[in-house]
Amino acid sequence: MTEQVLDVHMSEATVSVLVQMHDKTRKAEVTLSRSTTTKDLLEETKKNWSLPNQDYSVTNLTKGRKLLPKDQFTEENVSDKDVLQIEPIIVAG
Q1: Which residues of the chain fall short of a pLDDT of 50?
Q2: What is the pLDDT of residue 39?
Q3: CB-based contact 69:37 (threshold 8 Å)
């Protein structure tokens, strides 16, 4: 497991979470700014993990809720030690 910090300024409030793929092939403990959005997390994760260019969703497994792309990591949405799971969005043809 790797520890990463994604562009956090020291004066900002932060949250530390576990980010993992749906199949648990990749996971990382990360510290994020509370102003980070789900979209920001997905963009960084896709780049850092070289994920295929497709749409993904994020579920906070600890709280049992999907996070929308515009959702910030406020205390209401994400707490320290929460597990955020990234899943590809499958579009049936």
Answers
A1: 5, 8-9
A2: 97
A3: yes
Average pLDDT, the chain: 90
- Quick one: CATH architecture of 2-88? Roll (3.10)
Cα–Cα distance list, 8 to 3, 58, 89 (Å) = 14, 20, 28
Q: Give the integer Cα–Cα distance in Å for 45 and 56.
A: 10
Using the structure block, give the residue that is written with the tokens 């999907």.
66
Nearest to 49 by CA among 11, 9, 86: 86
Q: Which pair of tokens denotes residue 61? A: 């497994």
In the structure encoding, which two tokens stand for residue 13, read together?
């409030």
Secondary structure class of 43 (helix, strand, coil): helix
pLDDT (0 to 100) of residue 7: 52
Q: What is the pLDDT of residue 20?
A: 98
